[in-house]
Amino acid sequence: MKSLVNKNILLGVTGGIAAYKSAEIVRHLKKSGSAVRVIMTKSAEEFITPLTLQALSGNRVSTDLLDVESEAAMGHIELAKWADAILIAPATANTIAKLSSGRGDDLLSTTTLAFDGPVSLAPAMNQTMWRDDRTQENLEKLKTKEFKIFGPGSGEQACGDIGLGRMLEPLEILQLFSSSFNQEEMSGKSILITAGPTQEPIDPVRYITNRSSGKMGYSLAEAAIQSGAEVTLISGPVHIDPPEKCNFIPIETAVEMYEAVMHHIKGKDVYIGTAAVADYSPANFNESKIKKEESSSSLTLELQKNRDILKSVSKLANRPYVVGFAAETDDLLDNAEKKLINKGLDLIIANDVSNKEIGFDSDDNEVTLITTTEKKYLEKQNKKKISKKIIEFISLAVTN
Ligand code: C5P
After folding, report:
1. Which of 32, 117, 163, 211 could be a cystine partner for 127, CB 3.0 to 4.6 Å?
2. What is the pLDDT of residues 265-323, one digit of tens each?
3. What tens digit of pLDDT does each residue of 149-204 get?
4. Whole-number Å distance between alpha carbons of 43 and 362
């Protein structure tokens, strides 16, 4: 269960007799090296106490959606942001129905709704409830939303019935969870990513720059780490924290970014240039602040062209798989295709920045992946999800 090391796992426990087995699940999760937080539904508390799961997980168990104290410590949004994956075991027919219809009337259903990542369920219920059309329809709907369903098993049930509906054993659940959670398709690969803007100083207090929040590059770095890759992130100044598990190299200017890339590119399997590198920098840096001239209504700055880092990487001997971004306002696909060819790239990601909903500062994006032989459109979705799909696409190219 190597794939669970250092992962943040949120375990949801709902109210079925199998809830007593969740203590064993917490123990296995902890043993596999993950950090565990537990959310219990009200009815789960009738079967096992929060204290047991708190002692085993080493974290306070969350139970209430509207509890001031727990919301202040870690509310549903924080829990959803904290988790790398959610596992609900046991998952009752009631919770499955709530998840399927998108209801959020308790802490577990609300947190799952607010969570943007993999959710796995280990159903546990009476065999008639399991066979019921409505339960099966709910599960089918959840499967289309990429929920993973583990089990249930068959056999004698707590109620005396015999049939399908028993929760799988904790170790079986853990094995399925571990292999589904992280395919590590980029394991053994190393990736260099550039992100953010560059800042080109005019004098000690002024600079010219490009608009870039860094969100796309940082979430690609995170997705690449999740896929098992070793990640180096070279970034201009942004307001977000870099992923913990990357080699982070902060820079400011286009020249510094060029030098850092050339220094770190050797041996890399993939290069992804998301940075909004300034095309031009002031030709001369003024050592002291340029004064406002009362007698003149204009100021002329001479700019000189910066090297194209992406193009330089694609020209290297033993070059990695090279990926560029085309942030365009007009003729998106045409311009992106031209860039793919002109810069000699393996893949270009076309991104319409005239659309405010998916543009610079937004959390969403909608892109088209273009190679010389293929075009793949990824519909509007969270940058985290888009990043995962981009990394999956790249992994197919570099691991085959
Ligand atoms: O030519 P244009 O700037 O539109 O191309 C965008 C792509 O080229 C992005 O992937 C960006 O990171 C990269 N780029 C670069 N060095 C530059 C300018 C852009 O690597 N000087």
Report:
1. 163
2. 999 999 999 999 999 999 999 999 999 888 889 999 999 999 999 999 999 999 999 99
3. 999 998 887 888 888 999 999 999 999 998 876 567 899 999 999 999 999 999 99
4. 39
**Nearest CA residue ID for atom 4, ligand 1:** 326
Q: For residues 378-391, b (16+ Cβ closer than 10 Å) or e, as one string?
A: beebebbbbbbebb
User: Does the CB atom of residue 310 touch ligand 1 within 6 A?
Assistant: yes
Superfamily of domain 190-283+300-399: CoaB-like (3.40.50.10300)
For the chain, the farthest-separated pair of C-alpha atoms sits apart, in whole angstroms, at 95
Q: What are phi and psi of 333, to 5 degrees?
A: -70, -40
Which amino acid is residue 180, in one-letter code? S
- Other CB atoms closer than 10 Å to residue 229's CB: what's the count? 27
Which residue intervals of 35-85 are DSSP H helices?
Answer: 50-57, 68-74, 76-82
- The separation between CA 349 and the C-alpha centre of its own chain, rounded to angstroms, equals 18
Distance (Å, rounded) from C-alpha 146 to C-alpha 243?
A: 25
Enclosing H/E stretch for 131: helix 127-131
Active site residues: 159
Residue 310 CA, closest ligand 1 atom number = 20
* Residue 306 beta carbon below 6 angstroms from any ligand 1 atom: yes
- Which residue type occupies 158? A
Residue 31, SS3 per DSSP? helix
Same fold, 2-179 and 190-283+300-399: yes
Structure tokens belonging to residue 327: 């942030």
d(CA 60, CA 65): 14
Three-class SS state of 272: strand
User: Which burial class, exposed, middle or buried, applies to 144 when counting CB atoms under 10 A from its CB (0-12, 13-18, 19+)?
Assistant: exposed
pTM of the predicted structure, to 2 decimals: 0.66
Higher pLDDT, 361 or 140: 140
Strand blocks (E) in the chain? 8-13, 35-40, 85-91, 119-123, 148-149, 153-156, 162-166, 190-195, 199-203, 206-209, 230-235, 247-250, 270-273, 280-282, 303-305, 321-328, 347-352, 364-370, 375-382
Give residue limits of the domains in the chain: 2-179, 190-283+300-399
Ligand 1, from 272, 279, 310: best to mutate by most atoms within 8 Å of Cβ? Answer: 310
CA separation for the pair 100, 85 (Å, rounded): 18
